[in-house]
């Protein structure tokens, strides 16, 4: 088994230590680090960025060639770890011999301990894993009152209490976070714009993980059920199908047959993933697709209405105005006007 020991509170030194242990090529751009791996120890990448509010975002997309442990000792910051597994499986513990908590695909976990314990990630040989870890430094002092307020809330909810030494939580399946991580992967901007976009999306992921924890506690109290991982994958797949083909005249019966899920499972899944009913999701997809067509094509409004699967121009104008606070014709005219001005 390969053991990697990280005894540092700075992201730059941490990536230097990772490179020394695993090899690979280390790139740094605008405070963002990325270690590209392709050796007999590991293939893939590990990336990370630290923001001024003492939040570090790490992203692992890696396959280790042997059972591997990454052991972090960070008593000076004592972070709360908000983790999310996008693919594969990983395990987390507070010592090599402690009980491990496993995260499967689409699961979120929150882990913290007293400052004297290590933070340990366990990776299985030849198992591809993709996950993110948002570390919030609980012991750092900030000059920003709003940041201190956030930390106080996180410490109150997610640090050990009543003499306990560890706090562990593994949540139910959540696809909203996976979508936000995909948004980070798709960011093409560079420099300060990229930093700001990642920062904003990381805060959204953090909020979603906190909300997931809150909802799981509520569901446990009320003995609510939840969808299986396979069913969540089916929801994600049918959602992508609707986005790719908004022109189809969908019905709940059609979507149920295509996905293999009951109508009630569909509604539950769309509520969990998109916070919308199936009908609301389809309508929103059509409006957003229409808005993009107005910006990127020369189609007239009637042609766009037909292209996105609607039959009534007046109805389209109504739902477009509800979302964008202007009529589609006004929006189109101003797009053209901006094009001429530019």
Give a brief outline of the structure.
With 342 residues, the chain is an alpha+beta fold. It has 11 helices and 13 strands.
Written overview of the protein:
This protein has 11 helices and 13 strands. It is an alpha+beta fold. Helix 3 (176-185) packs antiparallel against helix 4 and helix 5 (229-244) crosses helix 7 (263-274).
CATH fold field value of the largest domain = Jelly Rolls
Task: Report the biggest beta sheet as strand number plus sense, adding barrel if it closes.
Answer: 8 strands, antiparallel
- The end-to-end span amounts to 60 Å
Oligomerization state of this entry? single chain
Can you identify the CATH class of the largest domain?
A: Mainly Beta
CATH superfamily of the largest domain: Jelly Rolls
Q: What overall form do the CA principal axes indicate?
A: globular
Mean pLDDT: 87
Number of domains: 2
* Alpha carbon gyration radius: 23 Å
